Amino acid sequence: MAEKPTYYITTPIYYPSGKLHIGNSYTTVACDVLARYKRLQGFDVFYLTGTDEHGLKIEQKAEKLGMTPKAYVDQMAAQIKELWQTLEISNTKFIRTTDDYHEKAVQQIFERLLKQGDIYKGTYKGWYSVSDEEYFTESQLAEVYRDDQGKMIGGKAPSGHEVQLVEEECYFFKMSKYADRLVKYYDEHPDFIIPASRKNEMLNNFIKPGLEDLALTRTSFDWGVNVPSDPKHVIYVWIDALCNYITALGYGSDDDSLFNKYWPADVQMVGKEIVRFHTIYWPIILMALDLPLPKHILGHGWLLMKDGKMSKSKGNVVYPEMLAERYGLDAVRYYLTKSIPFGNDGQFTPEDFVERINSDLANDLGNLLNRTVAMINKYRDGKIPALHAGVTAFDGDLEMLAQTTVAEYTAEMDSFHFTNALNTLWKFVARTNKYIDETEPWVLAKDDSKHEQLDSVLAHLAASLRLTAILIQPVMTHAPKAIFTQLGLALENMDIKGVDYLALPAETQVVAKGTPIFPRLDVEEEAAFIKSKMTKNEKAKGRKAMAEKAEKQEKQTPATDETAGLTLNKKPIRFDKFDKVEMRVVEIKEVSKVAGADKLLKFRVDAGDEGGDRQILSGIAKWYPDYETLVGKKVIAVVNLKPREMKGEVSQGMLLSAEYDDGKTVQLITVPDNIPAGSDVG
């Protein structure tokens, strides 16, 4: 038997500073979907996930809890492993950066790079974020604090975390040495970074301005991997963490057989917030080690709430264990896979979660199975008739769509467009439901001369369910087997590779009474339940109470001219008037000129809308001759203006800009990259 082709998939390794929520879980579920799909196609898959357990933040967290760092990360790693078991993640290995073999390999890698001159010792003085485990220059900070004399005294990283000034002896990596080689690799491998927009961000924001040497070590804490030749230094977390992808395969050990078999990785999937580390630092480390680079680095979007990213402080965190326990694992895995469109952010609301279960799973798929099993029992004593092509006038269309569905589904899965793959499959499910209405089997059953047509309809319905069950396997771990079992089909051959719609076993006995695999839910009741399980936001309650109090006082206080001495260009307005304006952070995805309009630029922006990107026109072409450089920037837009038409194009909002120098200069108001598109501004 020929040896199976290999396929290596990795998630980022998770930082165990807190409990993981559904946003954190997305990457692991998405990678699991890919791993299961590739196995069903006949690949030998190695799927890696794990935890990133070193760093000052972990040391401080453990100290606060009265624990040793090792005891703390042992506890957190066990929690995360348990979560992956709950979500039925099929990972091959779980690596921890505190594993002995990993620490030894990292030390070997560091000493090799030091010996060959890629690492040198110096002194670092600058700004450091403990929460991000990252150094920043002043220009990289989202906000800078200064004293009365204008001297910088602190600031905030793009993540929003405070930075502190550190000065210590440090080892540096000569990143600039490899910058040109990295850009050349980007050019020669256009699908190395997926989606391509992430590559433009890396080039424009980090490489073209000048790639700075990377600080690699710290001496102010102990929780990490020590430099063997200089033990007072702890290796900086990103070098430690990134090398897990090769040390997990035995690189740097006495047995590197797995490394030789599986490396380079086929897909390394990460959230967009850590794309820089995986597409700049990681490939440079590999280049310095003379190792091949991964085939693809995929930077996916975030699963957001209406008020932005999930966080305990906002009180909007949803945990996957709770959803799986109440609604079943298949519903959770399906929702996560469907909710983040390729390259964009997705949005979770309790109402959407419940409604998707009802519409996609209960109505479309579950009801199709219930009706099919019931009709086969009623009209053919529970036995699936033999499938013959083209018997009724509607068979050919369904058969052709089945072939098209397999081809399109496979293409979408192979290109990591999981949402599109599910959309393709659900169009087929919807078409099969329509097929029932077209053929009217209950009418055919009343006419003995329509015996063959009825057999054909029932067989086509069973074939459609069989195909759907086979294709949905990477996403759902229970429903496919339940569908096969209710249809009386054997579970042995459910491989996606070579699946044939017409290869339906005949005379199979269906179950006497089908059981709904996805019961319908009460949307209002279940949405309320999910909201009750979300972490509470005491700050929001406080702000609301303060606003209500201020409004009450305003109504009771006689009107006075509080604007005396203020320079205003427009009449003062009450807060309730201003509050009607909806502003959001939007990410610029594409910019172009508007034909026949010298002043207008046409922007395609991600505003966090469920329906995808929106278009906004802005008359700022004069001030942005190099408008392509705006791609990837985060700006502020008014999003609830009524759409208006200009020069034959529709504008669905307004971008905010600042005007100064007596109107000679206009500049878009940008916001830090860490703020998610769709976040409210107010």
**Largest sheet geometry:** 6 strands, parallel
Total individual domains: 4
* Distance from first to last alpha carbon: 64 Å
Count every helix, treating DSSP H or I runs of 4 or more residues as helices: 21
Shape: globular
**Helix-strand category:** alpha+beta
What's the CATH class of the largest domain, please?
Alpha Beta
The appropriate CATH architecture of the largest domain is 3-Layer(aba) Sandwich
What is the CATH topology classification name of the largest domain? Rossmann fold
Residue share in helix = 40-55%
Estimate the mean pLDDT confidence.
Answer: 89
Strand order of the largest sheet: 3-2-1-14-15-9
Radius of gyration: 29 Å
The tally of strands reads 27
Strand content: 15-25%
Can you describe this structure?
It is a single chain. The protein is an alpha+beta fold and 682 residues long. Helix content is 40%, strand content 19%. The strands form seven sheets. A six-stranded parallel beta sheet has the order 3-2-1-14-15-9, sandwiched between helices. Strands 4, 5, 6, 7, 8 and 10 form a six-stranded antiparallel beta sheet that branches. Helix 17 packs antiparallel against helix 18. It starts with 5 loop residues before the first strand and ends with a strand. Mean pLDDT is 89; it is low at 537-546. It is an enzyme of class 6 (ligase). Belongs to the class-I aminoacyl-tRNA synthetase family. MetG type 2B subfamily. Keywords: Aminoacyl-tRNA synthetase, ATP-binding, Cytoplasm, Ligase, Nucleotide-binding, Protein biosynthesis, RNA-binding, tRNA-binding. A motif ('HIGH' region) lies at residues 14-24.
